């Protein structure tokens, strides 16, 4: 494969951010840049959406961390994973005001912050799906095999979570190495990858396909298998209490896929086009850029949704939160007995889940 032009190298490599004032040059055209199509998405509206997601995520995930941390004695293995998931969403939410300014104007925060917020986005995504994969394995072993060996592992679940964080950071290293803040031709400052002109196509394949394979496709296949068998087993046993708990987990997984799967599918198509597996034209480039822009917005909104799922579906989460308010005298016990419904479901490990 031949080398790309310099402008082409400044394009997104694997977690591409699309900006309306910065587009790639079609390598098949002599020197004529593709004219961007109007996406009909007001950049200020997108910035406002990011700020709203920031506020919702900050409040919601802080409550999740509070509730799970407060109930240390009743914390299940699944709760530990969900706690780490909330922390990941919370850390990513802190970057959204910066992305909002970027959407509305240009990147004004320098290379260090460019690398930092980009890495936080990557770590949030990879840790999210890896944690959900671990939850699926935990539920699979506990419900399908119903073995104590699958549930007596609270003492080392912390090491599993630590490994997930380390692996997520490792998958995000390309972003840390190559993302910079710089001025491209005829544009304001952007936060993009710069990898040079040598072996560009090969780097695109390595730096995008490998993280997606190990950080998205494999965990997704694990989740589909584990939850497929687990749900089948639950319906056969007809345990209504466990089925209610699984509804929360499945809702979390489904929302994650709805938010992030379109973005990753678009990235796969974009990679194929940038490596010339699919012929690139200005029309296709504009379509992919538009799809990346829209699906990225959808992916960013995911950070605030899980607390809403716990609040509206997870009865135990509501009860645990109300008990904290009663303990601190913010509401009376009569209110708790009136609005807090009892739930007898306990995790297979014998520890009552505070989230499910």
UniProtKB/TrEMBL annotation:
Keywords: Cell membrane, Chemotaxis, Disulfide bond, G-protein coupled receptor, Glycoprotein, Membrane, Phosphoprotein, Receptor, Transducer, Transmembrane, Transmembrane helix. InterPro entries: CCR1-9-like (IPR050119), Chemokine_CXCR_1/2 (IPR000174), GPCR_Rhodpsn (IPR000276), GPCR_Rhodpsn_7TM (IPR017452). Coiled coil: none annotated. Pfam families: 7tm_1. Residues 60-310 form the G-protein coupled receptors family 1 profile domain. One of its GO terms (biological process) is calcium-mediated signaling. It comes from the Eukaryota. The chain crosses the membrane at residues 44-68, 80-102, 125-147, 159-178, 214-235, 247-265, 294-313. It is a multi-pass membrane protein. One of its GO terms (cellular component) is external side of plasma membrane. It is found in: Cell membrane. GO terms for molecular function: C-C chemokine binding; C-C chemokine receptor activity; C-X-C chemokine receptor activity. PANTHER family: C-X-C CHEMOKINE RECEPTOR TYPE 2 (PTHR10489:SF689), CELL ADHESION MOLECULE (PTHR10489). Receptor for interleukin-8 which is a powerful neutrophil chemotactic factor. Binding of IL-8 to the receptor causes activation of neutrophils. This response is mediated via a G-protein that activates a phosphatidylinositol-calcium second messenger system. Binds to IL-8 with high affinity. Also binds with high affinity to CXCL3, GRO/MGSA and NAP-2. Belongs to the G-protein coupled receptor 1 family. Interacts with IL8. Interacts with GNAI2. This is C-X-C chemokine receptor type 2. It comes from Gopherus agassizii (Agassiz's desert tortoise).
């Amino acid at each position: 494969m031949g080398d790309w032009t310099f402008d082409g190298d400044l394009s997104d490599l694997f977690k591409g951010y699309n900006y309306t004032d910065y587009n790639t040059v079609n390598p098949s055209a002599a020197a004529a840049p593709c004219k961007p199509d109007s996406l009909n998405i007001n950049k200020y509206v997108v910035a406002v959406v990011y700020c709203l997601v920031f506020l919702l995520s900050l409040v919601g995930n802080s409550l999740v961390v509070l509730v799970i941390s407060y109930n240390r004695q009743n914390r299940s293995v699944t709760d530990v994973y969900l706690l780490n998931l909330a922390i990941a969403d919370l850390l990513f939410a802190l970057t959204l005001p910066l992305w909002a300014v970027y959407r509305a104007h240009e990147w004004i925060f320098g290379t260090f912050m460019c690398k930092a917020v980009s890495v936080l986005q990557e770590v949030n995504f990879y840790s999210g799906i890896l944690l959900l994969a671990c939850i699926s394995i935990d539920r699979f072993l506990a419900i399908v095999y119903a073995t104590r060996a699958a549930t007596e592992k609270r003492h080392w679940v912390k090491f599993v979570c630590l490994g997930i964080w380390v692996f997520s950071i490792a998958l995000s290293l390309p972003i840390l190495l190559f993302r910079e803040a710089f001025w491209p031709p005829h544009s304001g400052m952007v936060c993009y990858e710069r990898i040079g002109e040598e072996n560009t196509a090969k780097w695109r394949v390595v730096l995008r396909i490998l993280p997606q394979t190990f950080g998205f496709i494999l965990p997704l296949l694990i989740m589909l298998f584990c939850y497929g068998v687990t749900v089948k087993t639950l319906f056969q046993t007809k345990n209504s209490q466990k089925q209610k708990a699984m509804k929360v987990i499945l809702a979390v997984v489904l929302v994650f896929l709805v938010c992030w799967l379109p973005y990753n599918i678009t990235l796969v198509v974009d990679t194929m086009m940038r490596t010339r597996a699919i012929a690139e034209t200005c029309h296709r480039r504009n379509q992919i850029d538009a799809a990346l822009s829209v699906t990225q917005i959808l992916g960013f909104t995911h950070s605030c949704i899980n607390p809403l799922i716990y609040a509206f579906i997870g009865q135990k989460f509501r009860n645990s939160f109300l008990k904290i308010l009663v303990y601190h005298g913010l509401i009376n016990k009569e209110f708790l007995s009136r609005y807090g419904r009892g739930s007898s479901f306990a995790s297979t490990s014998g520890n009552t889940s505070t989230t499910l």
